[in-house]
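Render this sequence as a predicted structure.
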Amino acid sequence: MLTMPELDISHPTSFAALDLVRRIPGVQVLPARGFATSMTDFAAWADGRGARRLLMEDHYRLARRRLDILMEGDGRGIQLDAELGYQVQRRTVVSLGWRYWYLESTDGKRTLPNFPGSLELPVTELYSKRTGATLSVRHLW
């Protein structure tokens, strides 16, 4: 009889995948590794938001402060998204969209995370512009 060796898997990113790996004998599910934040810490952050929207931008900002990954300076940016969806089946939507992202920063500093005595690195000029098509498939459960 063929036996399955012990296997460690990082916590899957979907409930369906998590259900699948939990049903396989000999598989140990390790803690999630999302942006250096445990699922318990993330749930506490989300619960603390109350009636406010859950924006990942706010979570990342808090995580960067907690981990001492800081960027300070002057700058500006914008992100624009447009999307057109088509219902292909009941409760299933396929969407095609366009994203534009622009960031400009001047005269700032960046601190490296978790390094005692790390240098503050100057950000003299940073410019980033991205555009691209997006495709998404959503199923409403």
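Summary. The chain has a mean pLDDT of 81. The chain is about 20% helix and 50% strand.
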